Design the sequence.
């Protein structure tokens, strides 16, 4: 039971990270209707930028951890958001009215560009950083000596996710930008006729998605203590799985799907085999799509004839 | 656009580039021997990149003004377009004759022969995937899985049971087709993008299983010592029973290369022939109808289930053949050969060639694999350039370079159909 609780905690933390990436997929899919293949790589770039910012701040002699974290958060969100914006501008906007396959292939190309760009720029080896946030709480110690740990970093990941999710839900449901986004999701032509700047709204969607992916990258870096140039691919597919599982286009669905994938992966590793955890996650994608093509919280897709 | 506006655009682009590259290029990190990360600055590289963006955006903007707003169409005027389809009628036979003569012309140039075999392997893969993507309109991002199934079927059957290539080849095809049907079932209800992601996941599952099922597949070490193909039972070596000895000619290792060349050429032509024949049969027309409109297709009483499954199975079978050939050519296979990059490369060949166009796919394979060879010395930049090329080609010509294909059915006179009129990837 203790082991189970510990795995539950680990799974929820991992799931929060997947959920943050999945939101970017869901938003872009909801509005533009394309799978942004490069999104996983934007998450990876976010991790790298956080890592480099950490190194610079530490070598500048900063010691106050909250200050460092805040600066790293802001810098990585800002630069990664600019990556998202630029990619949309270069690779997706010219293809907006092209046939369906073109943006997807362009996105696959962009994903290769980003992966290999960071390999060329930063080398192929894994980049580790020493643990920043240490310590934690012992929740329970059983008679046979098994300890349920809740580390500070785990608390931080979950709290950050909840706060961001709250800000984000407010943004979509209460602000002008959110209203424009929902309008574009319904019908882009109609929204444009009614005075919504569609181009700007789509750009902002990419910017917000990339910024959330950057936070996920920072959390990943803090939680696992490393980044590498190839981590975007697998994380990207899993986050997409999460988005599909939750019902693509639905924001709470993306978070729920992320948590589900995180839990499934963690429990699979804990009770079955670590080697096959990715196989389990991908199999779930296939199974979900067979039995629930619209996901957990998704709306049924209306067939346009 | 005046000069001040031009400079302003270039300046903004350079500023964006500066922010984008500042940390990733300007600072280089490396883990030292003790695991401690060190970093050093590379401001020179950063400055030259930003300067390149500044200069590049001025050049692009000037070019755009010079060519005009409809630059892409002007580069390939409609006259050339129709001329291309005219040439196409004679290009294909000419190309085929040239290909048949390649081993004769380049007999002493081993490198060119190897490259030709590689190109033909991708032509075959492209034609195989073309059945699924180009004809049936089902976007498959995991085609490499069938290639892997074919390669491992032959590799394992040949090394464990010593079966000959000619028995294993059909078996590899059947096994791959079987996996195609197996993958087909779950995706029957899916459309477009979902289909793409499920096939991608399937390709990854196959690769991960190959890596982790060490007892059977040897895991990351792969399968080695896969026997070379024989000339219908006669080995191609320097022994007494070898083909060279029986024919009474001097043995040369090039014989085997030439044999492999004609083998893959025959397999590729078989793929092409079967595809062209199938397209004229009811099933091929059903594929194309499915690609154009699934709802209308169902309304006409076409069984979309069998239509999709046969498309997947046929495409997968050819992938399996190509895989078996790959295994016998290399003599060694490992999971590294079957990554997502490979799937993307084959898909890029099909799309670049103009989906549904057999000639286009062959030319695109030649261009892509040839281009890849050019960048062989720049190993790390290769995929970077490949990715950029994919983006640029999509922006320039989203429907591929050869935008024409012969119609399946016509009333009185054959006319080439522009691929702009053809829908793809609707699933």
Sequence:
């Amino acid at each position: 039971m203790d082991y189970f609780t510990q795995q539950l905690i680990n799974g929820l933390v991992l799931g929060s990270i997947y959920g943050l990436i999945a939101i970017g997929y869901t938003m872009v899919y909801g509005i533009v209707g394309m799978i942004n293949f490069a999104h996983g790589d934007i998450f990876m770039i976010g991790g790298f930028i956080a890592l480099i910012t950490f190194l610079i701040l530490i070598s500048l002699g900063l010691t106050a951890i909250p200050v460092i974290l805040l600066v790293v958060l802001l810098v990585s969100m800002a630069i990664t958001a600019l990556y998202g914006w630029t990619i949309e501008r270069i690779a997706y906007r010219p293809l907006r009215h092209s046939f369906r396959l073109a943006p997807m292939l362009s996105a696959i190309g962009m994903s290769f560009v980003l992966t290999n760009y960071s390999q060329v720029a930063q080398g192929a080896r894994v980049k580790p950083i020493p643990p920043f946030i240490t310590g934690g709480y012992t929740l329970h110690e059983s008679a046979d000596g098994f300890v349920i740990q809740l580390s500070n970093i785990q608390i931080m990941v979950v709290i950050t996710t909840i706060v961001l999710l709250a800000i984000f839900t407010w943004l979509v449901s209460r602000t002008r930008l959110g209203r424009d986004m929902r309008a574009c999701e319904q019908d882009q032509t109609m929204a444009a006729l009614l005075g919504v700047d569609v181009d700007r709204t789509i750009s902002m969607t990419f910017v917000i998605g990339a910024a959330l992916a950057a936070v996920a990258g920072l959390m990943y870096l803090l939680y696992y203590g490393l980044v590498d140039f190839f981590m975007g691919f697998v994380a990207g597919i899993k986050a997409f799985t999460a988005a599909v599982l939750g019902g693509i286009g639905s924001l709470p669905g993306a978070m729920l799907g992320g948590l589900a994938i995180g839990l499934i992966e963690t429990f699979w590793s804990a009770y079955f085999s670590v080697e096959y955890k990715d196989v389990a996650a991908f199999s779930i994608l296939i199974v979900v799509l067979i039995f629930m093509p619209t996901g957990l919280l998704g709306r049924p897709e209306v067939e346009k004839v | 656009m005046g000069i001040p506006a031009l400079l302003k655009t270039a300046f903004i682009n350079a500023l964006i580039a500066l922010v984008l590259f500042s940390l990733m290029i300007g600072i280089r990190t490396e883990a030292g021997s003790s695991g401690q990360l060190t970093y050093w600055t590379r401001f020179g590289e950063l400055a030259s990149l930003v300067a390149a963006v500044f200069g590049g955006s001025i050049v692009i903007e000037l070019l755009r003004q010079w060519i005009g707003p409809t630059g892409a169409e002007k580069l390939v005027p409609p006259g050339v377009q129709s001329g291309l389809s005219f040439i196409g009628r004679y290009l294909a036979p000419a190309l085929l004759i040239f290909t048949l003569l390649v081993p004769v012309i380049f007999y002493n140039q081993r490198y060119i022969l190897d490259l030709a075999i590689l190109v033909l392997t991708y032509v075959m893969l492209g034609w195989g995937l073309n059945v699924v993507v180009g004809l049936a309109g089902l976007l498959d991002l995991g085609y490499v899985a069938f290639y892997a199934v074919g390669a491992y079927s032959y590799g394992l059957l040949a090394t464990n049971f010593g079966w000959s290539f000619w028995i294993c080849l059909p078996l590899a095809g059947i096994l791959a087709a079987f996996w195609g049907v197996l993958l087909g079932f779950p995706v029957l209800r899916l459309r477009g993008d979902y289909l793409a992601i499920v096939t991608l996941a399937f390709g990854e599952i196959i690769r991960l299983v190959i890596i982790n099922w060490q007892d059977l597949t040897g895991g990351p070490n792969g399968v080695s010592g896969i026997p070379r193909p024989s000339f219908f039972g006669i080995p191609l070596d320097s022994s007494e029973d070898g083909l060279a000895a029986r024919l009474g000619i001097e043995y040369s290792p090039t014989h085997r290369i030439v044999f492999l060349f004609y083998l893959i050429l025959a397999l590729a032509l078989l793929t092409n022939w079967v595809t062209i024949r199938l397209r004229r049969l009811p099933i091929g027309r059903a594929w194309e109808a499915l690609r154009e409109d699934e709802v209308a297709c169902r309304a006409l009483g076409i069984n979309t289930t069998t239509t999709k499954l046969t498309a997947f199975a046929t495409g997968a079978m050819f992938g399996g053949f190509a895989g078996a050939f790959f295994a016998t050519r290399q003599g060694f296979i490992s999971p590294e050969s079957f990554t997502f990059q490979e799937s993307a490369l084959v898909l890029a060949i099909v799309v670049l060639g103009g989906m549904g166009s057999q000639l286009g796919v062959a030319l695109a394979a030649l261009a892509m694999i040839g281009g890849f060879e050019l960048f062989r010395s720049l190993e790390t930049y290769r995929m970077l350039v490949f990715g950029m090329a994919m983006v640029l080609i999509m922006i320039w010509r989203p429907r591929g370079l050869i935008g024409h294909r012969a119609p399946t059915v016509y009333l009185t006179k054959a006319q080439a159909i522009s691929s702009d009129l053809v829908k793809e990837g609707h699933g």
